[in-house]
Design brief:
Strand order of the largest sheet: 3-2-4-1-5-6
Strand content: 15-25%
CATH class: Alpha Beta
Distance between the termini: 37 Å
Length: about 230
């Protein structure tokens, strides 16, 4: 690669953010259940805003056109809206941050299990799931395989859009643990059946550096940085 090529490379920074704590009792199953944020939401949003507006690692990134993509579920979109407002205050006043919701970045659909305690769901059903983690389809829900296909289809569409960009972009995706695992597993070529080995904490960030012109230069910068 020549020096002139390296100077003009388009680099997209992708930040995968998991939502914070939710107002759901311990031991209750939730995926697409549209649960409320917890009482600690204000403190969590303050930490996220601080990370994206004050850390030295982001000083070189242009915030004239940050793009935030959010799951439409409350626990994500409320965080996304707050961050969007904060980034707009940092941006060129002639431009605005962009916020989009994408249904494909919802968590897995547990179907009839949503909102039930694991105890009520029953050990037999949980064991059936455990014996076929990838292809078990939750009653009136989806399987891990179909969920992963949904997420990766949206991820591939996003990458295709970014490949057409003529300038570097900062993309912040505020979503769920399962979605982040799917994207990271795809990016790192980890088999789907091993994706649960990736620990994704609430209010954590994972960072990918994409070079659409030279994919071999793309890197996973870090995973699961807890705020």
């Amino acid at each position: 690669m020549s020096q002139s090529e390296s100077n003009t490379l388009i680099t997209h920074q992708i930040y995968l953010v998991r939502h914070g704590e939710v107002n759901v009792p311990v031991g209750v199953c939730y995926g697409q259940l549209n649960c409320e944020v917890s009482a600690g939401f204000e403190a969590e949003q303050a930490r996220l805003i601080d990370y994206f507006t004050n850390t030295s690692q982001l000083e070189s990134l242009a915030y004239s056109s940050p793009i935030i993509i959010s799951s439409p579920l409350k626990r994500c979109v409320q965080l996304a809206q707050t961050l969007n407002q904060a980034l707009e205050s940092q941006a060129d006043p002639t431009l605005q941050a962009q916020l989009h919701c994408n249904d494909a970045f919802k968590e897995i659909n547990f179907g009839d299990w949503e909102g039930q305690s694991w105890q009520n769901i029953g050990q037999d059903k949980i064991e059936s799931w455990n014996n076929d983690l990838i292809d078990y389809t939750f009653p009136n829900g989806e399987s891990a395989r179909s969920f992963d296909a949904r997420v990766i289809n949206a991820w591939d569409e996003l990458k295709a859009q970014l490949a057409r960009e003529t300038s570097s972009k900062t993309i912040i995706i505020i979503t769920h643990a399962g979605v982040i695992r799917s994207i990271l597993s795809h990016f790192l070529h980890i088999p789907l059946q091993h994706s649960l080995l990736l620990n994704i904490d609430k209010l954590s960030i994972s960072h990918l550096n994409l070079y659409p012109q030279f994919e071999t230069l793309s890197r996973c910068m870090f995973v699961n940085k807890k705020l």
